[in-house]
Every structure is written in structure tokens, then in C-alpha cells.
């Protein structure tokens, strides 16, 4: 077991090797957390993130875990706690995007999204809170598509994110007796390697005429992971430049 960082707290970011997840890892490490991050297919990105955190004086651990695999989720939490000794904050960022209209959307694609974006989120929270002390934090990364459908080909994705928004309300009540706060962030378009080819088109859809950056979401993760958010639970916070207005 290794000694944790200066604030004596540990966070786990599911889906933390790229994009929003990587930005959350950086910010939580800056805030003094020892951070674990899961990845599925990019060990290089995950290890680069660990090296970056450690080069800046922090502690990090990369864990391979597919969020469609219930056993892998359990093992990821167990590995993190075995390594750092505790768990205070979990950020559930892992998710899948599959697009298509109803006449072409396959059962396989439907099951894949539901498995990761709903079942995987619930199982990650379930595993985390079983090892988390009182007054911990659960943060999910949803989508503004839960509030307002943005395209007809995004029905299933939006449905999965609306399920997460509903899920955290019940879990907030469930976990309130333990002082565990449960909140959901609903980003709009964020500039990542997945969206870079469509940035100009996306920018035109946003009332503020700008596309969000991963750090914009990481700042909100930081707030929700802190004591400053102690009176907030069961909330879904939309951050999308006005797209869902």
C-alpha cells in the first residue's frame, strides 16, 4: 500500500485516459488527490497520463477495466483500494456513443450502449460506494442530450444519458444517510479527438458560438469533489454554452 497525497484523499475516474476523463484526472491530481484511472484499449494513453501526474508530484494508477464487464468494474475498485488504501471520490465518465435512426439501429448497438452507459454506470457506483467511507462523492458524466434531443440519430444515446440523470436522483436519496453526495454533469459539445473534425459545424450550433474544452468540465468535477459542494446532491448540472435552452 502506498501513502496517498497531501489532502489524504483518493479518487477513481472510470474512463480517465482521454478527453474529459483525462482532464478530470489532471484536475483532481492538482487538487491533491491520488488518482486511479481506468482504460479499455489505450494503455499508452493511460500510462502517459500516469507519468504526467507523477512528473507533477502527484500519484496515479492506471487500471484496465471494461465498463461493460461487471467483474472488471469490481476488480478496478478493489485494485485501487489495495494500492492507495481508501476511496473518497468516484467519477464515472466511461461511455459509448452510437448513432442511428430507429429503422437502422441494431439490437447489438442498443445492447452495447445500455450495457456501458446505464448498467456500467450503476455497477461502477455500486462497487465504489461499497468501499467508500461516509461523506464521499459520486460524480457522473452525462450529456445535455438528456435535456434536449439534438439530433434524430442520437435517440438511444440521449435515452441512456436521461437514465443516468434519473438514476442519480434515487441514488442521492439512497446514499444521503451516509453523507455521500451524488451529482451528474451534463456537458454539451466538448473539443476532443472525437469531435475535432466537426468543430466548425458544432460551434455554429452553440448560442455562445464556442465549443467547450475538457477543462471546463474538469473544473466542475473539482467543485463537486470538494467540500464547497457539501450542500448539493441529486443535481444534474448542464454545461453546454446554452444549447439546451
Automatic annotation (TrEMBL):
Pfam family, one: adh_short_C2
Source species, domain of life: Bacteria
UniProt keyword annotations, A-Z: Oxidoreductase
Gene3D superfamilies in the record: NAD(P)-binding Rossmann-like Domain
Keyword Oxidoreductase annotated: yes
One MF term in the entry's GO annotations: oxidoreductase activity
Entry's family note: Belongs to the short-chain dehydrogenases/reductases (SDR) family.
Cross-referenced PANTHER family: OXIDOREDUCTASE, SHORT-CHAIN DEHYDROGENASE/REDUCTASE FAMILY (AFU_ORTHOLOGUE AFUA_5G02870) (PTHR43639), SHORT-CHAIN DEHYDROGENASE_REDUCTASE FAMILY PROTEIN (PTHR43639:SF1)
Name of the protein this chain belongs to: 3-oxoacyl-[acyl-carrier protein] reductase
Native source organism of the sequence: Gallaecimonas pentaromativorans
Amino acid at each position: 500500500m502506498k501513502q496517498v497525497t497531501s489532502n489524504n484523499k483518493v479518487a477513481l475516474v472510470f474512463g480517465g485516459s482521454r478527453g474529459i476523463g483525462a482532464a478530470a484526472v489532471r484536475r483532481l491530481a492538482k487538487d491533491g488527490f491520488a488518482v486511479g484511472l481506468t482504460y479499455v484499449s489505450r494503455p499508452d494513453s493511460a500510462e502517459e497520463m500516469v507519468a504526467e501526474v507523477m512528473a507533477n508530484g502527484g500519484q496515479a494508477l492506471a487500471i484496465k477495466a471494461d465498463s461493460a464487464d461487471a467483474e472488471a468494474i469490481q476488480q478496478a475498485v478493489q485494485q485501487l483500494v489495495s494500492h492507495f488504501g481508501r476511496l473518497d471520490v468516484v467519477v464515472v465518465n466511461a461511455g459509448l456513443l452510437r448513432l442511428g435512426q430507429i429503422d437502422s439501429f441494431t439490437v447489438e448497438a442498443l445492447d452495447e450502449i445500455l450495457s456501458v452507459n446505464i448498467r456500467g454506470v450503476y455497477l461502477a457506483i455500486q462497487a465504489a460506494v461499497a468501499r467508500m467511507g461516509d461523506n464521499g462523492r459520486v460524480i457522473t458524466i452525462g450529456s445535455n442530450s438528456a435535456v434536449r434531443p439534438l439530433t434524430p440519430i442520437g435517440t438511444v444515446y440521449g435515452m441512456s444519458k436521461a437514465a443516468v440523470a434519473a438514476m442519480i436522483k434515487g441514488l442521492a436519496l439512497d446514499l444521503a444517510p451516509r453523507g455521500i453526495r451524488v451529482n451528474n454533469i451534463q456537458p454539451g459539445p466538448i473539443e476532443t479527438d472525437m469531435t475535432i473534425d466537426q468543430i466548425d459545424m458544432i460551434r455554429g450550433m452553440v448560442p455562445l458560438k464556442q465549443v467547450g474544452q475538457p477543462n471546463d468540465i474538469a473544473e466542475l468535477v473539482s467543485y463537486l469533489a470538494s467540500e464547497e459542494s457539501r450542500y448539493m446532491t441529486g443535481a444534474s448540472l448542464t454545461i453546454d454554452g446554452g444549447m439546451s435552452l
